[in-house]
Amino acid sequence: MLPDDLRIIREQLSRVPRGVVEIAHRCACGAPDVVRTEPRLPDGTPFPTSYYLTCPRLASAIGTLESEGVMREMEARLQTDPALALQYQQAHEHYLARREELGHVDEIAGISAGGMPDRVKCLHVLAGHSLAAGPGVNPFGDEVLVLVGQYWQRNSCAGGPVAAIDCGTNSIRILIADIDTDGKLIELVREMRIVRLGEGVDKTGEFSPAALERTFAACEEYRTLIDAHSVKSVRFVATSASRDVSNRAAFIEGVHQRLGVSPEVITGTEEAELSFLGAVRGLTNLESPVLVVDIGGGSTEFVLGDLTDDVQIQNSVSMNIGCVRMTERHLAADPPSQEQVTAVEADIAAAFDEAARTVDFSLAKTVVGVAGTVTTVSAMAMDLQRYEPEIIHGSTLTSAQVEELTQRLLAMTRAQRAALPFMHEGRVDVIGGGALILRELARRTSPISIRVSEYDILDGIVYRLAHRGS
């Protein structure tokens, strides 16, 4: 069972679930819709319904069928169709055998549920049996599922929007979304605050009081948004720096106090999968293998994956180069000196060399760049008069453009960068360091152009959270 399954079941049933052994089936939205229960409940009560239907929307749809006389029609056929009667008898025996696996209870020995083997008394039980056992086991349960159709399409059975929060070295972002009738995300809120949580961590090994204050203030804003949209589930993913800093406990406690969830540092494998899933969402004509590169504040992630059938991650690696880290480490002058730029180039080249031992850049047929550095450089390439994500998403950067724009950004003063109409104030100081990483990416994958995605790990988190229903 997933961590939130019992919470979801409790909401579905409007009571505490009893005797749940496992999730016997999940709705297409990812939420539980049938649970397998103990034949004797914790209070000692014998309980014959081994497969218990929990989804309220499915239960309601089945209730409508019962009110329309479907059970009477089924039972009449049962008395006149020997082949159907034999199938139903076999379904009864299957039900009993599976329940016996959980333990023998004398009081209900030989008694299955739903009226089996010779009556039709409860379509909910029969449908639950079909969902758990699969098609071809319970003939009437299969018929019920055909009659109710795709009952899950309107919204997640978990009941409402979900929120994902990604707290990185430079920014903290939130995405609140629901699911439409096609199973796609409906974006309700997308916000970003530049909090510079990782400011000075490279030197001090701890989050500064000012950085924590900025981050907690953003969390309070996000709490208001979460409440306003009646969000059902929240996941907060934090920068890996939060695992190593000396005042980690203060960060965790501050976030939990404001949002009711604790920050989690996910594994590299999950981070790669979520980053890839988010980055490719909404992009078309991606030839596999696809290399997704996420240039963050403190690190850069490389993920090579295949989209031929489903998302399959081939290799991934995270390197400690990012726009904030490179800027703080080397780019002190305004504009930076050639010596400072050369020092950044050396760090970046060494990181790419190391990454190439895990991820073979030459295999990539498509390169997708995500996060603020890539999207800002794309806005600059198109000479946008304001930051327009709907135009930036799906755009393309050639190697020549990246070379030219990196040189222009490095030659500008801070005031000149700040005057660019598409430049977010939080990126003014660090865009040069990020552009140097982007330039190295263009050189290593040349002559492949870079597709630009406005979606990234945040979208991957909320997509999985919403479809899982937890």
Descriptive notes:
The protein has helices at 5-13, 56-67, 70-80, 82-100, 123-133, 139-148, 201-204, 209-228, 241-244, 248-259, 268-280, 323-330, 338-356, 372-381, 389-392, 399-411, 414-418, 431-445, 457-468; strands at 20-26, 32-37, 51-53, 162-167, 171-179, 185-194, 233-238, 290-295, 300-306, 312-319, 366-370, 396-397, 450-453. It has 470 residues and is α+β, with helices and mostly antiparallel strands. It has 3 domains: 5-148, no CATH class; 162-266, ATPase, nucleotide binding domain (Nucleotidyltransferase, domain 5, 2-Layer Sandwich), CATH 3.30.420.40; 282-454, 2-Layer Sandwich (Nucleotidyltransferase, domain 5). The strands form 3 sheets. A 6-stranded mixed sheet has the order 10-9-8-11-13-12, with helices on both faces. The protein has a 4-stranded mixed sheet with strand order 6-5-4-7, sandwiched between helices. It has a 3-stranded antiparallel sheet with strand order 1-2-3, sandwiched between helices. Helix 12 (323-330) crosses helix 18 (431-445) and helix 14 crosses helix 18 (431-445). The radius of gyration is 28 Å and the shape is elongated. The model has no long low-confidence stretch (mean pLDDT 88).
CATH superfamily of the largest domain, called what? Exopolyphosphatase. Domain 2
**Largest sheet at a glance?**
6 strands, mixed
User: Count of DSSP helices?
Assistant: 19
Helix/sheet category: alpha+beta
Q: CATH first level of the largest domain: which class?
A: Alpha Beta
Strand content: 15-25%
